[in-house]
Each structure stands twice: as C-alpha cells, then as structure tokens.
Design brief:
Blueprint (H helix, E strand, L loop, with lengths): L5 H11 L3 H14 L4 H27 L3 H14 L4 H7 L2 E13 L12 E9 L5 E5 L6 E9 L10 E12 L5 E10 L8 E2 L11 E2 H4 L21 E6 L2 E6 L10 E5 L4 E13 L6 E5 L10 H4 L10 E2 L1 E6 L1
C-alpha cells in the first residue's frame, strides 16, 4: 500500500486530467523515494505506456514533416518508456545508423590577420546528405579528426554513398565594440550542394556471414601510387556513381573525387554504416587567400587516422562490417 507520498498524489490528480507526461514525472519521483512500493511502480508503468504512445504519435508526425532527427529521438524515447510497443519496434528496423569520419590537415604560412580579433574559432566540415539537409561537425584542433552521426529512414544501402563534402572552413565568433556577438563562417574549400546525377549498378548479395572488424581491413588501403596534386574545386561539380562489385566508380569531368567518401563500410545485419572520407590535405596558396585540396595517400599505417579514431570506445558499434566498398575514379 502507498504511504504518504505527495508526488504520488499529484500523479493521480494529473492522471485524472489525462496529463500523462506530467503524471509520469510525478510517479517517477515517487518511485525514487519509494522504490519498493508496488502501487507506485504500477502507476509509473501505466503512465509510461500512455506517454510512449504519445511519443510514437509525435514520431509519426515528424516523419510526415521529414524532420527525421526529431522523429528518431521520439521513437527512441517511446521504446525506452515501453519496450513492448510493437509498432515502435517494427519502425526501429527501418532506420540506418551512419557514422561519418575523416581527418583534415591544413598547410599554410599565414592566416588572415583579422582572425586574431576573433573571440572563438572552430574548424568545421559540412556535408550534403541524400535528403537535402546539411550536416555540420567540428574538426578536432588537436588531431584534425572529425566524426558525426546521422540516422536515415527507409533508405536503400547504396543511397548511403551519396553523402558528400559541402564545405570545410572556420566558424568564427566575434564580439563588436557594443558587445554584440556575430557568428561568421570562413570557407576554405567549397564544393557547394552536390548530389549525383545518377547512381547505377546494384549491391550484390555477397555479405559476410560474420561481421569483421574495420581495423582488419585498413592495411588494404596502404598504397605506393603517386599522390595527386592539390586542386581548387570549380563552381559547379557534377558527377555520377556506379556500383561495380566491391567498388564505387566516381564519374566526373574533373576526374577528382575528394568531395566523395573514400570507403563505405556496411553492417547490414545491424543496420549500421561507416562513411570514411579519408584524410583531406588543404593547402593555402602564396597569396594567403585561396585553398586547394587533395586526398592523402596512405604510405604506412601511421598515415591512417582510423587507428587513432578506433580508440574512441563510444563509437565501437560502428567498427564492424559485412561488406566494404572502395570509391575509385
């Protein structure tokens, strides 16, 4: 039987008013104070079922509005509140989890003198996505490594290859003499909004029965090929992608592919993928105004940033694959 619990009484009153979420909060507080009380536990479970259904309905609304990140958060919350919600469990099987990784190395003699007036400077990389949204991620000032996660709803695996670099630059925060803060973004390399004119070919069903560790594949990327010269992307870059066996051909008049990933690791059994953009080397010209880019060729394992990234245990769930594709030109 419930003893004297103000929060439990509040929860009962809110439940009568069908204010499920607020009632659940009160019951949760009461459960912390009275963890062995069966009536409080039953009330909390009852409300969690109600609130989970509300969150699932919000999830469906966000899907219709194509607010995919908001939708996914609602779906996750609904399953935490009610793991037995069958509709939510079915929907969760329609989402791919994507990790986008890489490294940026800068080579310059000097930066613009007015940058010294900035309050804060953060290197950033922005990506084009298949659904038209732009993703932004910070680049570590210490290592140059970046990683960001995305979730994709009801997509074919080969659409994951359509992520491209939009721009690499510096987010700058300045404070005026009047105390106002202004955020600017100085673009170093700008590929702009890109999407393939066509994606052809198919992913054949040659998936490994047992997922392998990505680190076991990395030695394959070491090469003695001559490095490409740096280049400045034109105002308009058009390209196509063609799947052929274990490769993805980048077809472009520029014959360059730094805007595209270097490797796509798929883990179809877990609906996870890792898009590896390799190491982008950015070089400033003598004028100090223009940047060019090239993808670094790995001569030894020490050139590969991925070994450092793999020490981040929170990302470990992405470091397994049952199919791997290399992008070629």
């Amino acid at each position: 039987m419930v003893g004297c619990s103000f929060n439990y009484d509040q929860g009962l009153e809110l439940e009568k008013q069908e204010r499920w979420a607020e009632a659940a909060i009160e019951y949760r507080i009461a459960a912390v104070e009275n963890p062995d009380d069966e009536d409080i536990s039953a009330a909390l479970k009852r409300m969690n079922v109600k609130v989970a259904q509300e969150n699932f309905e919000s999830y469906q609304q966000y899907l219709q509005q194509k607010e995919f990140h908001k939708a996914y958060r609602r779906l996750e919350t609904a399953l935490i509140q009610n793991p037995e919600l069958s509709q939510a469990r079915e929907e969760m099987q329609k989402w791919w989890h994507l990790l986008i990784t890489g490294k940026v190395e800068l080579e310059f003699d000097r930066l613009s003198s007015n940058l010294s007036l900035a309050e804060e400077m953060i290197l950033q990389i922005r990506f084009n996505t298949p659904n038209g949204k732009i993703l932004s991620g910070n680049i570590s000032s210490e290592t140059g490594i970046f990683f960001l996660e995305d979730v994709v709803y009801r997509t074919q695996a080969k659409q994951l290859a359509e992520y491209t670099i939009n721009t690499i630059g510096l987010r700058i925060k300045r404070k005026s003499s009047l105390g106002y803060v202004r955020n600017d973004f100085k673009k170093f390399v700008n590929f702009r909004e890109l999407s393939p004119l066509e994606v052809s070919g198919e992913i054949t069903d040659n998936f490994l029965k047992t997922p392998q560790n990505v680190l076991d594949h990395r030695p394959v990327l070491i090469s003695d090929k001559a490095a490409l010269a740096t280049w400045q992307p034109p105002r308009l870059v058009s390209y196509e992608l063609r799947f052929d066996g274990d490769t993805i051909k980048i077809i472009s008049a520029s014959k360059r592919g730094e805007f595209a990933p270097a490797v796509l690791y798929l883990n179809k059994s877990d609906l996870r993928a890792n898009l590896d953009f390799g190491v982008s080397k950015l070089k400033m010209d003598a004028s100090g105004q223009k940047w060019s880019i090239r993808r670094k060729t790995y001569r030894t394992a020490e050139d590969d940033y991925f070994y450092g990234l793999s020490s981040n245990l929170s990302l470990n769930r992405y470091f397994y694959y049952d199919r791997v594709f290399r992008f070629i030109q």
